[in-house]
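Chapter summary example.
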Amino acid sequence: MRQLVRMAMLLGVSLGVGLFSNAQAQTISGSPHDLSSARITGSPTDEVCVFCHTPHGGDNTAPAPLWNKQLPDPAGFTTYDSLNSATIDGNFLAVGSVSIACLSCHDGSQAMDMVINAPGSGGLVPGGAELSTTAIGTMPGLATNIGKDISNDHPIGIEYGGFTRGGNVIDPDFNTADLQTATIGTNTVWWLDVGSIAGRRDKNDIILYTRDNTSNGGLAAEPFVECGSCHDPHQGNGTGAESDPGGPGTAVNFMRVANTGSQLCLTCHVK
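The structure predicted for these 271 residues follows.
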């Protein structure tokens, strides 16, 4: 079925017809990640990107580009492996990679408008400061403010399919047919090729992440599941429906693949 869908997508591209041509484009503007005054009453700025990124003075230890927030302490989180689940085949790493950037907002430890470098000149505060002490606080709700105990959330920092140092998926309950790898520069990248263009890593694929050998306990460059594997923080606009025709992602949850009929789950898990 997946191959038929992919063939239909490619046919649409080859004919110059966008499969989702009538849909509203998915962008960060107007999405739940847009904290600007255009969307949030009382927000101290009309800039959208500043709440996460800055062109100058960002945290150069962050795994996300030009990150404009202080990162939380990775050791402060309780992760899924603390449950000692009998179904875990892969190695767990400490919270890190792109997930630590996501958690700098979603662990509820600092206000959403806490930034290192505020808009304009003279706003650089290395330790971070709120743009407004009254306009925007921490994210409300269980799904958005998940705290430091993430043992009840999907595992992050775990090898995909119980990968081994030999480069094999050892758990037969994981999809390997769509697993792709490539080298970009000197970096090994992995993804599940289920997006709109076969053979190319894009925003609608399931993205897997590698860690350098100094931070992953000596493991080779292997695919790890992180927050960004299922979520693309920039594609949140659209209708809000899980089957949003603006693309496989969903408007509210920033999913890379819609979970209608558990499609997202079954992209990775063979059940």
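To summarize the output: Residues 2-14 form the longest helix (13 residues).
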